[in-house]
Amino acid sequence: MVTGWVGKVARRYRRRANELLDPVIGAAGRVRAMVPAIREVHRGERTEGARHAVYVHYDRWGVVHDYIHHAVRELADNGYLVTFVSNAPRLERIQIEPLLPMVREVVHRRNVGYDFAAYRDGIARLGDLDRVERLILVNDSVYGPVYPLSSILHAAEVKDADAVGITDSWEHHYHLQSYFMMFFPGALRSRAFQRFWRNFPTVGAKKWVIRNGELKLSNVLARSKLRLAALCPYREVARQVLQRLSEAGLSASGDGSSNVKYEAAYQEILRSRIVSGAALNPSHYFWDTLIVDWQCPFLKRELIAWNPAGVPRAWDWEELLRARTSYDTNLIVRHLQSL
Q1: CA distances from 114 to 21, 154, 166 (A)
Q2: In the chain, what is the straight-line distance between the N-terminal and C-terminal CA atoms, in Å?
Q3: Is the confidence at residue 272, as pLDDT, over 80?
C-alpha cells in the first residue's frame, strides 16, 4: 500500500516536472536545431513519384545490415521513393553503394535528436509536402516486413484515415507507435503536421523525444481533428489475448518445473493487467498474437535481442516466423550475431 501510494506521488511530481521543464528543453533544442546536422547527401537512382518513405538507421559501427536492405527494397518495390537517413557515427562508401539503386537519397547526419530529429531532416529533404501523396516513416528498430508489404499498404489505404500505424498504444496517452507510420494528404497538407516537423527541436534526451515526438505527434494530429487508425488496434488485440489466456487456463501444476511456474505466473499477471486496463506495449507483450492472428509485418528488435519485459518464449520467434511466413530469418540471426 505504501509503495503504491509513494509511486503515485512520484509519478505525479514527475509529470509536473516534465510539464515545466519540457518547454524549456524544447526551446533550447530549437536553437540547437539551427546548427545543420547533415554531413553528406548521396543521390540515389530513384527519382520519380509522389509516394515517399523516410527510413531512419543507426548502427554504432556504421553497418547497414541485410534486414535493412530487405525493408528498403520492399518499400522501393511498392513504388515508394526512399530517403534513407543514417545517424551512424560513420557511413562508408561500401555501405552506401548497395542502397543507391533502391533509394532517392542517402542522408548521413550527426547522431543528434534520435529518430524524430532524423525523421524531421528526412522530411525536410522532400520539399513541398503539398506535392506528396503518401509518406511512410519507418526506422530500423523493427525486423521485417515478415509479410509482403503490399498487403499492409493496401490495408492502410482502405482505413479511411489521415494517419495509420501498425500498432497503437495507450501508454502515457494514446498514440500510434512510431516504428512505422503512414500519412495521407489530409495529414500531409495540414498546418498541424507541417508545423510539428518544421519546429521539432534537436534534443539529446531519449525520454523527452518519446514524450514530445512519438506521443505528442498523435496528440497534435488528433486535436486538429485528423483521423488516426491502427491496423492492429490495441483494444481488439488485447481482448483476443485475454480470451486466449482465459481458455488456456495454464496452471503451475504440470511437471512443477520452474519454466512452467514462471509462465503460469506471467500469464496470470498479464491477464490481470489487461483486465484492470493497464496500458501495455503491444509490440512486446502481444508480439506472437500480432504476427499469427493479425499478420503484423514487424517484430521489435529490442524484444528479440534483450526482452526487457521478460516475455516468456520470446526466443520462439524464429520457429514462429518460419511456420507462418516466408521471411528469411537468417537476416535477423546475422544481425543478432553482430550486436
Answers
A1: 19, 30, 21
A2: 41
A3: yes
The cell for 259 is 519454466
Answer left, alpha or beta for residue 310, where phi above 0 means left and psi between -120 and 50 means alpha: left
Beta bridge partners of 209: none
Question: CA–CA separation, 88 vs 64, rounded Å?
Answer: 9
Tell me how far the alpha carbon of residue 268 is from its chain's centroid: 28
- Ramachandran angles phi, psi of 197, nearest 5°: -75, -35
Please report where in the chains the cell 482465459 appears, as a residue.
246
SS3 of the chain: helix, strand, coil, percent, to 5: 50, 15, 30
Please tell me which residue, 3 or 99, carries the higher pLDDT value. 99
DSSP one-letter code for 85: E
Cis-peptide into 145, omega within 30 deg: yes
State the pTM of this model. Answer: 0.92
Distance (Å, whole) CA 305 – CA 282 = 17
Sign of CA dihedral 93, 97, 99, 104: positive
Name the residue among 181, 182, 296, 179 with its Cα closest to residue 234.
296
How far is Cα 298 from Cα 293, in angstroms, rounded to an integer?
13
d(CA 299, CA 339): 17
Q: Which domains does the chain have, with CATH numbers?
A: 38-232 (3.90.550), 234-338 (no CATH)
In this structure, are residues 310 and 287 in contact, taking their beta carbons and an 8 Å threshold?
no
> Cell triple for residue 198?
518544421
Question: What's the CA gap between 274 and 118, in Å, rounded?
Answer: 34
Distance from C-alpha of 123 to C-alpha of 65, rounded to nearest angstrom: 23
Question: CA–CA distance from 252 to each of 245, 261, 285 (Å)?
Answer: 14, 5, 20
Mind listing the pLDDT tens digit for each residue in 32-44? 999 999 999 999 9
